[in-house]
Specification:
122 residues, mainly alpha, Helicase, Ruva Protein, domain 3, two-stranded antiparallel sheet, 7 helices
Length: 122
């Protein structure tokens, strides 16, 4: 799917720290925990809870966030629609990675089983 250059630029320049509180609110409102959120982020990126806190303190952009990440080799298994975009069809690699994270957070908030979210029960 074609995303606009402006959309891709906004994704790259957005800070992880600005979005993270929304992730917390979303999952906790649905009865999930910060520890579960961190488990999902660690699966996708390789970041530990301490790494996540450091990245928040550093106010890194999503561009830097994903440059530092070790993307899970099964990330390509994350499919579906998020914010009106079909993830597997997004043509900008960084925007696609941001949407991978958004999709995992959505699945966690919707009560999906962790082994399904982490694509371990394929």
């Amino acid at each position: 799917m074609k995303t606009t250059p402006e959309h891709n630029r906004r994704m790259a320049e957005m800070t992880f720290a600005s979005v993270y509180p929304h992730y917390i609110t979303k999952v906790e409102r649905k009865g999930r925990t910060q520890a579960e959120l961190h488990q999902v982020i660690e699966w996708l990126t390789g970041f530990t809870s301490q790494d996540i806190e450091n990245l928040i303190d550093e106010k890194v952009t999503f561009k830097v966030f994903f440059q530092k990440a070790r993307l899970n080799p099964n990330a390509h298994l994350i499919k579906g629609v998020i914010c009106g975009y079909r993830i597997e069809d997004i043509d900008n690699p960084l925007t696609q990675k941001v949407r991978y994270l958004d999709k995992l957070v959505d699945e966690l908030a919707k009560g999906r089983k962790m082994e399904k979210i982490l694509r371990s029960a394929s």
